[in-house]
């Protein structure tokens, strides 16, 4: 009962804070003959950067179009600008209202959780990937736990930042060095070595007594060649080996955006990982996860609305589970 009261209280506070939402319009080319589309975002703009990046091959800068009441947005009032897809933040209080109005509930991110009670090789889904892991083991990579401040600074400047900028470009967002130091108050820091060369780093953090979460990973200069050679798989395999031997029962492989064709999500699902959506939970006596979802309205009547779903099928919350929504021509 106390938990329900906390969630309702936090949801009510979130609803009042977001009663009036700034609106932003982004237009761009979908590519693959999908034509042009208009996205309408309600709320703080940075939370939607990955959406624009995922949908558009070319796009305009976001233009501010005014402030709107969230209830007018979900009712599709006449003062709301035209769009092919609209998104706005929801919480446990506004979610059922949004569903009743025909909006889809999309997790901002999904997590992939791996059961570590089996051997590393038995956690692999496909024979092809199992052979890749076997080949990586043959290269005799080694991981070492690191603790020196100078090692962390080198990792941040020479591995993490270049990797993020190489992989995500203009939408890259990274925490500062101080945030990494905060992670290490409870976390562990590992380096991956090929012979004597340090080529990658990984920070992991415990969640509870028997679960481990992968926090950040980076490799030397963000080098694409190292990525092709399997450096990410190599440090993950070694981390799984270490975690299983250390008594951990589960590993959270990290968060991914909820697009079925997202590369990092599919890479995680080469393992027998279970997909989970954001959960409302107390962390250090603070309720987190209330704003873990967005409402999405696709204008299926428009060619662009259908093209968006055809290009990037999504995971949608359906009761207590997730299902895929898309469009087939």
Overall description:
The structure is a single chain. Strand 1 and strand 2 form a beta hairpin. It contains 11 helices and 18 strands. The protein is an alpha+beta fold and 329 residues long. The longest helix has 20 residues. Strands 1, 2, 3, 4, 5, 6 and 16 form a 7-stranded mixed sheet that branches. Strands 8-9-10-11-12-7-13 form a 7-stranded mixed sheet. The chain has a two-stranded antiparallel ribbon with strand order 14-15. It is globular.
Determine Rg (CA atoms, Å): 21 Å
- What is the count of DSSP helices, taking H or I runs of 4+ residues? 11
Q: Tell me the helix content.
A: 25-40%
Q: What order do the helices and strands follow?
A: HEEHEEHEHEEHEHHEEEHHEHEEEEHEE
| Average pLDDT figure | 88
Low-confidence stretches: none
Oligomeric nature of the chains: single chain
Structural class: alpha+beta
- Strand tally is 18
Cα distance spanning the termini = 47 Å
Largest sheet: 7 strands, mixed
Strand content: 25-35%
Q: What's the overall geometry?
A: globular
Question: What keywords describe this structure?
Answer:
single chain; 7-stranded mixed β-sheet; 329 residues; 32% strand; alpha+beta; 18 strands
Task: Provide a short characterization of the protein structure.
It is built from 11 helices and 18 strands. By secondary structure, it is an alpha+beta fold.
